[in-house]
Input
Amino acid sequence: MLSDFLSLIYPATCINCKETLISAENFVCTSCKIDLPVTDDHKNPENLLFQKFAYNKTIKSASAFLYFTEGGIAQRLIHQLKYEGANEIGDLLGDLYGNIISDKFCPNLIIPVPIHKRKLRRRGYNQGVGFARGLADSFDDCEVREDLIFRIKNTETQTRKNKLSRWLNVDNIYSDVEEDLSSKIVFVVDDVVTTGATIGMLCDKLIEANAAEIHVLCMARR
Ligand SMILES: [Zn+2]
Output
């Protein structure tokens, strides 16, 4: 009731086209939702994102939901999600993407790329968790696990270091996985993948724990 009342005074508008939203719409109006810049990466196994991971035989696929462009809808959504407290945008994107790819995969676990506890404290949530949750809804017997692996180094300080120490530093930014992941098909999910280096390190830890297959999924890519 309160939100209905507030929406009379401050009507919610579409993040992209600024049209007033109707009550069934969240963040994005129906016409912008239909026009989302989807990549269809999942239909193209050799896509640009996968090429970042092709060196690793356990990483079976990589796909992004949307194209990320300056000022584009993916950038707006992810900005709101990461810096404006709109955690539910992750759920929305996961839900939409899950519907598109559900007959293509059968994951057992979904792991949102962990963020360092200091960053978690500042932001209040890991922006990948909602996306993971939204995706998990499209699959049977699939759980989101935030307790398997942790970010133990906050590498934001990296820019101050020289090349060699930087290289040494990134070596172990994630904790070891204590559980055996034999026969598990794992989704690793993130917002935007840039170099793929940190995800690669996360995947190495999952492979050490015997993960059967890893698929990298992200909200957007350039
Ligand atoms: Zn719109």
Notes: Residues 14, 16-17, 19, 28-29, 31-32 surround zinc ion (CB under 6 Å). The beta strands are 59-67, 109-112, 143-144, 185-192, 213-221.
